[in-house]
Amino acid sequence: MKDDKGIMGANKEDEPLFETKIARGGAAHKLFSFTIIIGLVLIWTYRLILIPTTSRRHSWFNGILFFADVLLGFYWIITQSGRCRVVYRYPFKDRLITRYKEKLPKVDIFVCTADPILEPPSMVMSTVLSVMSYNYPTEKISVYLSDDGGSELTFYALLEASKFSKSWIPFTKKYNVEPRSPEVYFSHQNTHMDNESSFAHDWTNVKELYEDMKSRIDSVEAKGCIPGEIVDQHKGFSEWNSKVTKHDHQSIVQILAHNSDPKAVDIEGNRLPTLVYLSREKKPGWPHNFKAGAMNALLRVSEKISNAPIILNVDCDMYANDPDVIQDALCFFLDEKKGQQISYVQYPQQYNNLVKNDIYANVNLPINEVCVPIIYLTMPSLSYI
Ligand SMILES: O=c1ccn([C@@H]2O[C@H](COP(=O)(O)OP(=O)(O)O[C@H]3O[C@H](CO)[C@@H](O)[C@H](O)[C@H]3O)[C@@H](O)[C@H]2O)c(=O)[nH]1
Ligand SMILES: [Mn+2]
């Protein structure tokens, strides 16, 4: 008998957490590219050698054409850099879970919003609820909403979302529903369930709670201010007064749930993720640096509250269409051999609600469906609502 890595097979602890495979057909693509490069060089040579000398106007015009050909060829060559050696990466979540169990790291999730009119709070809450319900130990997740709109409407919406999360999170995990954005989930599954199963019962119940929450948020938004009886429900509203505007206000930080608080539990008694509202200080004349500025403020605030080693960032108009997003990313960060070289994992984005003609080509067919199709099957992606 040899050692563990011999006859007995590879030591489980040594197995990598992700695998990189080179796509097939690389040689054929290189050959194809090479023939195009030859074509390009021939066109350039043709232009250079056969510059018409009959008139100055002709040679000037031909010079411009030569320049255009060189530019187009150059751009084409640059695009080849991403296609000549396509690799696919496959994370092994099961190995991650069995190896790390209780030792899985804490994760801070940053959601940025900037304007309650352009980015309606009910939409932002679906994003927040989708990230709160990832398949990951809830006591290790902290969700921070950065509100550059400095709006009490967004704060109110987050308060509503924190109450609804007590039903939404256990529902998603019990039935493994996908996607975890309640707005997208219920708009895909909008038929009435009339059977007697416990799923149908829970589904109807949670859908009703969701619709109620959404209509409360939307009606407060339509009014443009928070009714007095709601203001009395939470001391956080005292941060707002008539002087607070989007561009001029003090820092506002409100912790709506903390996962070390034994009272912060869902309807089944499981710990809730930490949930924090942040609206960083703004003063007229001081550059706030948009999303980058918001991320800096989020780093400083989260450092004091949860200080997780891993940070996940989403825009407020996104949702994760795969609840295992965190586990997938951790396979790259925690891989014993290669993890130290990785500081950043980016998921592909897909766009929803596009107009039929997609005049700005947002659906990005060449990249999403031709160049990296397998990544879509194996990697989670963040989607725009
Ligand atoms: O002062 C600001 C301005 C924007 N945002 C947020 O930043 C995000 C992105 O802004 P958006 O205007 O929606 O830009 P998009 O073009 O939709 O987003 C793409 O482009 C951005 C800037 O290039 C990147 O930051 C995003 O991640 C990327 O998805 C949104 O959540 C905003 O709420 C702020 O937090 N503060
Ligand atoms: Mn956006």
TrEMBL record:
Its main location: Golgi. One of its GO terms (cellular component) is Golgi membrane. It is found in: Golgi apparatus membrane. It is a multi-pass membrane protein. Coiled coil: none annotated. It comes from the Eukaryota. The chain crosses the membrane at residues 31-49, 61-78. It is an enzyme of class 2 (transferase). Keywords: Cell wall biogenesis/degradation, Glycosyltransferase, Golgi apparatus, Membrane, Transferase, Transmembrane, Transmembrane helix. Thought to be a Golgi-localized beta-glycan synthase that polymerize the backbones of noncellulosic polysaccharides (hemicelluloses) of plant cell wall. This is Cellulose synthase (UDP-forming).
